[in-house]
Amino acid sequence: MTDLTEIATRVSNWGRWGPDDQRGTLNLIDDGARARGLAAARRGAVFSLAIPFDTDGPQLGNIPGRNNPELTRCSVNQAWSGDPSHAAWSDDHLDMGVQAATHWDTLAHCGYDGLLYNGTPNAVVTMEDGASRMGAETLGPIVSRGVVLDVVRALGLDDRLPPAYEITVADLDAALALTGIEPEPGDVALIRTGQMAVWREKGRNPYSQKSPGPGVDTIEWFADHQWGAAAADNLPFEPVDVATSDWSFPVQRVLLRDVGLLLGQLWDLDALADDCAAHDHRICLLVANPLPLTHGIGAPVAPVAIT
User: Fold this and answer.
1) Does the 2-62+97-306 domain belong in CATH 3.50.50.60?
2) Measured distance CA(287)–CA(142) in Å, rounded
3) Residues contacting residue 35 through CB under 8 Å, at least 6 positions apart
């Protein structure tokens, strides 16, 4: 815990963008970062990075309210005028936890010692009003250069990391070396663990029970590279074995609360990573605009990568 406190102090971005800042490292995504993203789209190949939003999603139901998306009909072929020859309308209703499928976590999602990012008291989040500060509506459009950190290929593996594998700084450096570029402030890290293959082949329980992800020693790596945001293809971002976890989530809590780094989970990076490897071009234009839910603690997103 002492070591984690020292790390948190060193990587803290509190006050960097002013005492009232609510966006953290998203401030690094400037015109230059967006221009780098545009330059990265050489071929025009487009990849959706979202998983399907449906009841077959990865949520187990053990986190209250984090239910897999369920789409039902409000009306079907309803003629509001009373005459179906005029017009007949059909509408849907969506019920889901906002972090249940592909999403961004806002900086209101996690804190400790009573504080969120930038020294904000966690009392700004209430059951009645949600996140009155740092809500999803404060994030704005997220368009930047995405850097595909294919840890699976960097370690010479076929399609996935071992269950609950702790990704190290050396692993991330190896994945970064594959890209052939040096990241610049405001780039977005896209971390492929291969965990989506577990979901597709074995289902939601193996996918959620043991997940690989970046370990505690990578916190400073993320901060030092000044990523604008980071997203992964797993559920908890960091390594978790549900059977042995103490549920302290040290990586997420420091990255969100101290670094102010926006985190995404449940991103499907496999097809993008395959294309990047085939063309030896591991950067892309990333368009990942969060749903601007007022006072939202998280935000569903359907990210698109263009290579």
Assistant:
1) no
2) 6
3) none
